[in-house]
Amino acid sequence: MKKVFTGLLLTSMFFVAFPADAATTQIKIDDVIVKSDTAPEQRSNRIMVPLRVISENLGAQVHWKDSQITLAMNKTLIVLNLNNKTVMKNDKTEQLDVQPYMKNNRTYVPIRFIAETFGSQVQYNQGTVSITSEPLLLDNKKIKALRYEYQMTMGGVIQDIKGNAYHKALYQVFQQKGNKVEAPKEYSWQINLDIPGSYSKRGQYRFMSDDTNTVKQFDIYSLNTAFPDELLQGHPHHLLHDVFEDSWYIFTDQAVQSIKQLINNAATNGFSTIISNTVA
């Protein structure tokens, strides 16, 4: 049976060999306290965390097959095995201080080795493990937050997504745009039920720098489908608007769902903050 987890992985997480009880350890990544329904554990003076926590919060891909776990990010590949201290790192064999294991149907892995291998700054101070990962750079500016906004019939919500790995993963999805197209004749936040082929804005995404200036902005629009199919032929279901370039592209449903999943993961794990909520 093969299970594959692709996605976010937050560059380098929790760490290390500390005398404190792992159950009381607080994890911070890029100044955000990580939420998890399962606390880290301590084995042989090393901090162990569930694989799911890594798969949702690290900038790598995680593949789990039988008892073998593969972590990949950039050009680095790690292969771990349950109940085995031998690990492969870029085709070179090394020995872990503690072996990965299964508990309560969850796979636990040693964070120190993963953090050091994928390269991040890690500090420990009074029960808090703080990890600082490399930020996303756009136009030579460090991205501090992704400001996501969506509107509903009776108001809207604005939230900031923190975490460098989330920024990188989301930006990568926006780069998966399709063919360039002309701007639709009718598009806005509101659903227009009078014009076939009109589009409504599904969400607005602004990559913001440390000085809170918007460096890049992408808007996703969806086709209003409250019309007979014959009137909608030739109209892509989703469009991506690169606002700074004022260019329009076909966008796939898979890309839209990937963005939705990443934002949901960010909210679940504590990386999303509501700035404004005017929904009645």
From TrEMBL:
SUPFAM superfamilies cross-referenced by the UniProt entry: Copper amine oxidase, domain N
Annotated ranges, domain Copper amine oxidase-like N-terminal: 29-131
First and last residue of the signal peptide: 1-22
One Pfam family of this chain: Cu_amine_oxidN1
Keywords carried by this UniProt record: Signal
Protein name per Swiss-Prot or TrEMBL: Copper amine oxidase-like N-terminal domain-containing protein
